[in-house]
Structures
1.
Amino acid sequence: MTAISRAAQFAQRTAHLRASTIREMLKVTQQPDVISFGGGLPAPELFPTEAIAQATQRVMERLGSAALQYSVTEGIPEMRIWVAERLTRRCGGIFSAEAVQIVNGSQQGLDLVGKIFLDPGDHVVLEDPSYLGAIQAFDAYQTRYLTVETDEDGLVPESLEEVLERADPFPKFLYLVPNFQNPTGRTLSGRRRETVVRICEHFGLPIVEDDPYGELRFEGTDLPPLLSYRSTAPIIYSGTGSKIMAPGMRIAWLLVQDEAIREKIVLAKQGADLHSGTFAQYVFHEYVSDGDAFDAHVRRIAQTYAHRRGVMAEALAEFMPEGVRFTRPAGGMFLWVTVPNVDTAELLKISAASKVVFVPGVNFYSGRDVHDGMRLNFSNATEKNIRLGVERLAHAIRLYQR
Ligand SMILES: Cc1ncc(COP(=O)(O)O)c(C=O)c1O
């Protein structure tokens, strides 16, 4: 059989699968002298390697083969209880461990949500711009998007209302990242949170709240997750250990209070991978079960990122040509730079030659063609490289403008 006739047998949905620019770019960044603001990698020097080694040792001594056996699809009881308690603390409500589904990275959670809700041609409501990985996950289900405007306070409720009033067919859910959004770093303001929940309630639209960065706040006061608000519209909350512990563990969770949705998710997860790794779940739980040490660890990450965000913002103010604007996020791992009249996808070619890379903003938009934005990651570079990288980037912009 030739390669061409084999390709002809692929499912139609594969035509919607796009190569991720980010993954492609990560290949370029393997060169040691390239400074990357492109990926979304946490700082590896903050991974608690020693404590994880000790936790692994304790799990093996205490549980032995039980930690290596198949386990239930929903996740090990210890992990589900830990997630329910942590969210109860953050939200002020009371969540039961029953509502928790452990998943293999929140990326899997997004895929499972797509799998249970989306038929070809269905619509999903997204912030514009929105997280590229979510778009990729939903694309596999041949989805179309309705986009909602955003500003410095996150999603604009009036725009959401307008979109929902006009929507035909009616969308299946709203996907949003309310805290320190990927890609813009912006946060949905406290005032808008309840409004968004009420609008979705009014229209009967489920909400998928993706919150990988909520615990990485540098300044200001914590805002309640949308999950905190009582709502007749189902809220599917997605959290992850990737940014507060280590992404290689692939431990993440969904909290879903709606029983019917949860049942479908369990069935979809069973078909996908039976369950998340038993061993990883036990080690993760063993590590986080010393609550004070874990909280101190999360604070240390936030402090380091706060410092790096500050260094990047200062360098941008110092080196960038006039007219360049940037966000100054109060948490998370990304900031967003707008370079008026510059196509940042073209700029990337020049900047890569100057050995600094970023993600062009156009990749995150599904509603409009916006070419003058770029996402910069500040968690994964040293202070020295952040300054040097921003200086190189400013130089690349000047070359482009010539
Ligand atoms: C908004 C958002 N959702 C989900 C993910 C995926 O995280 P995980 O490692 O839990 O799959 C990321 C990772 O960058 C993200 O930024």
Note: Residues 227 and 235 are 6 Å apart (CA to CA).
2.
Amino acid sequence: MMHRLFMMSLLCVLSASTLAETAPIRVLATFSILADLAHEVGGDRVVVSSLVGPDQDAHGFDPRASDIRRMSQTDLVIANGLGFDPWIARMVAAARYKGRVLTVSDGITPLMADAHDDHDDEPSGSHAHAAHGAADPHAWLDINHAKHYVGAIAATLGTLDPAGASHYADRATAYNAQLDALDAELRRRFSALPAHRRTVVTPHDAFGYFAHAYDLHFVAPAGLSNEASPSAANLAALIDQLRQLKVPVVFFESFADERLIERIRQATGARRGGLLYADALAKTGPASTYLGLMQHNAETLITGLGAP
Ligand SMILES: [Zn+2]
């Protein structure tokens, strides 16, 4: 009798510990693109959700009480850093969250926004309205930085779940190989664009890293965040500049306010380019994964810029 009871309690202990080992790691990402990368690395060993979902703007996110509660049921928080999701620090404090916070941009060299922010005589293209000396947070739009993010996620998951360390490392290696292949393809295709077809007009200044990677020139009326709006003088100077450059096409962005870019389009006589995704995945369709988003943006840009 004693023996049987002992065996039963031993079985209970064993099954409880087995459960604890196989229970998925709960990951909370600040926005949809990081959630996708975490899902790619973690596979079935993780359950991932994001605070700012697809087709939503993380720049002006205001966490609700329910978001703070979600944090208390999380093993790992993944943030971008570089001022993109600064609200995460307030949430960690409010939730008294004691788990790991991984800032995936740690270790990369960020692009700095142009210091010449308010020179009306010099609408300096992609950084015309950025805050003085601010780091550009949109580092994921350079595939090589995304690979850094993936490596950081794999390493952190491996320390939280050592039994899965090789699973995470293998998945990260395989995924980064897909990113390398896409990067090589984009390099080849963008290098075929002639010099006079490399100026891209977008609503907000999100594509600095992408421009840097593929030798394009992006111009945006709003600043690094969708919330910044240009002064009338800056807007007029920008329109002048685009007229002089005879920029033939302007691009739109998911969930960004269309009015400003539409005004520029009409004032310059440019065509409507397609829709670009910068700060969030799409809910559905080709841009609903990071790889798909990069492919979709490249396709849209090459089609729009390449047309006569
Ligand atoms: Zn942005």
Note: The longest strand covers residues 25-31.
